Amino acid sequence: MTIRTLDEFLSTIPEGAKRDRMVEVLDWVKATYPDLQLRIAWSTPMFTHHGTFIIGFSAAKMHMAVSAEKATMDHFADVMQERGTDHTAMLARLPWNTPVDYELIAAFIDYQQIATKKDVATFWRP
Known about the structure:
This protein is α+β, with helices and mostly antiparallel strands and 126 residues long.
């Protein structure tokens, strides 16, 4: 099934704390970064700015995944290591049972949107 709307995406997360947490984080991004546009792509919610990818979110059994481009993940690898944030080359895993690391999410967005992609005209970094 291809997910095309936020409601369809949210329906894939069992009702309760995990779904509430996802809504809370997406609402926080919308309120904190009103210039970003929420869209559903690859069946997940993501935010773009002037047509370029900024950050994405997905849900797994044990964590919320926060996706950024590899350059951003590389840039913050030491920060994530210091914080004990589990991550891969393309995403950070934020456990459902710990407070949301809004500071890290904001750092990803600020780095992608403001510092490195403000003049990028493609969806992905060239």
